[in-house]
Description:
alpha+beta
Amino acid sequence: MGNINTVGPNEALVVSGGCCGADTRKTVIGGWAWAWWLVTDVQRLSLEVMTLNPTCESVETAEGVPLTVTGVAQVKVMTEPELLSTACEQFLGKSVSHIESVILQTLEGHLRAILGTLTVEAVYKDRDQFAQLVREVASPDVGRMGIEILSFTIKDVYDRVEYLSSLGRAQTAAVKRDADIGVAEAERDAGIREAECEKARMDVRYDADTLIADHDRMFKLKKSEYETEVQTKKAEANLAYELQAAKVRQAIRQEEIEIEVVERRKQIDIEEKEIQRKDKELIAIVRRPAEAEAYKVQTIAEGKRTQTVKVAQADSGKIKLLGEADASAIEAIGKAEAERMRQKAAAYKLYGDAAMMALVLESLPKIAAEASAPLARTQEIVLLGGEGSRSTAEITKLVSELPPAVQALTGVDLSKVLTKVPGAK
């Protein structure tokens, strides 16, 4: 059996050996690998960046000046298969500190060798060129160990014999000398330039004074001319002023008249607006409420009319129904009365004049009652008359007019009927 070994991208996993005496070697970066128990060896190699600080103390330069140089280098194991295999041969099973020590000693050796070929000024003034040279020389050696130099810079350069400080003082003195010379030359040039400027200023001033005098003379001449012209113009202006004043007063009066006309028009407009406002007020206060009241009365009247129509329609329906009922009743009564009259007519036809006489006799009491109806409310009748009185004649006339009235009502000649009655004359 065996185990599964995993590794991150910052490490290389090296699996050596195998079953049946296999001598293969497998390298895995950021993955996993299977390792058999007892017959397989698993080792790890860091791929992280290593920071080194190479230091060379009191190394003599080409001029024999001892210098101390410190630098900073960033190195790491290369991941190309061949170079990684080389690094595994060199450093597999070694600690990171051991790897750093080997690379540091290599860099310091190259740094010392290159430092001995350069002057102090070259090292001090062009540190980047110095660092680039060290990197170019050391890269092949460390590359054969599977190591890559990512960066190399010079951190500090100093000495213990004050060569750099003396060099600095000389440089400083030269700079101060050049500065003093520059100041003196500048002051000289400034004095010359100042004198030239003063001369130019005076020339300009004299020219300016001459121009001022000329301009002053011209000014006075022009001023006298202008004053003469001004006085003339002033006199003309006074006359023109009076004329213009009269015109202005006339124009002002004209404007005042126009203003009065406009004010009157505005007053008329205001009065018209007031009249319209009062009309609207009357409309709002009197007419609108009256129209509202009229509309209310009209609406109530229409409601009452509608109610009356509906009531009348109901009453007409009621009357119609009652009329139909009365008509039915009257029709039944009429039919019964007709039947009775038909039977009477048949009897009258059968009995002839005797029946007619009986009908007349039946009707006489009714006729007498109707004729005497106005007299029914009379409590007492007094007849006054003597031999020449007209009462008897009136009664006789009334009785003689009775048969024609009966004939007119019944169609029966009462005189003829009475002559046919036995014993009547």
